[in-house]
Amino acid sequence: MDVYTDTPISRLEIVERGARRRFSDEVKLRIVEESYSGRRLGSATARKYGITRAQLNDWRDAARAGRFGPLSSAGFVPAVIVPEVAATSGPLLAEGSGRIELVTVNGRRVIVDQSVDVEALLRIVRGLETLR
Q1: d(CA 102, CA 108)
Q2: DSSP three-state, residue 45
Q3: How far is CA 113 from the centre of its chain?
Q4: For 18-41, how does the pLDDT look when each residue is reduced to its tens digit (9 = 90+)?
Q5: Angle between helices 53-64 and 25-35 (to 10 degrees)
Q6: Exposed, middle or buried, 112 (CB in 10 Å: 0-12/13-18/19+)?
Q7: Nearest to 106 by CA among 125, 84, 78
Q8: Quick one: CA dihedral 113, 80, 88, 106, positive or negative?
Q9: Angstrom distance (rounded) from CA 62 to CA 29
Q10: CA distance linking residue 29 with residue 59, whole number of Å
Q11: CB atoms within 10 A of CB 53
């Protein structure tokens, strides 16, 4: 152990971390849902509530497994997964039809036309990106 005698200590402050915090399942679920509310918000949400990113990931896993109760479905629209269409020699979509194909990071495909509700589409894509 090093002992420094050159500089006298004028003030010594002890910072207590306090008792271990306990979060109810409802609060954990609300924090998890908030962390999914936007892109790259996991770390920011963890900092906001004073938890580690690893703890938030554990809570996300527990929420997906249903250990905190059902996830809120607010903001999500039902999605139907259909088998992939076999490739044809011609184009699948007529030119000028206003359709677009989106491929998420994890390889999921969504094809929409020009009349799609953009907010609903964003919620669907965010939901698909959370799937493994």
Answers
A1: 8
A2: helix
A3: 26
A4: 667 888 988 998 888 888 876 667
A5: 100
A6: middle
A7: 125
A8: positive
A9: 9
A10: 8
A11: 14
What digits encode the pLDDT tens for the residues 54-83?
A: 999 999 899 888 888 766 655 555 566 777
**Do 75 and 123 form a contact (C-beta atoms < 8 A)?**
yes
pLDDT of residue 40: 64
Residue 81: half-sphere exposure toward Cβ, Cα within 13 Å: 6
CA distance 77 to 96: 27
CB atoms within 10 A of CB 32: 22
CA 37 – CA 15 distance, rounded (Å): 34
Between helices 42-49 and 53-64, what is the axis angle to 10°?
Answer: 110
Contacts of 129 (CB under 8 A, 6+ apart): 104, 105, 106, 108
pLDDT digits (tens, 9 = 90+) for 76-92: 555 667 777 665 555 55
SS3 (DSSP) at 130: helix
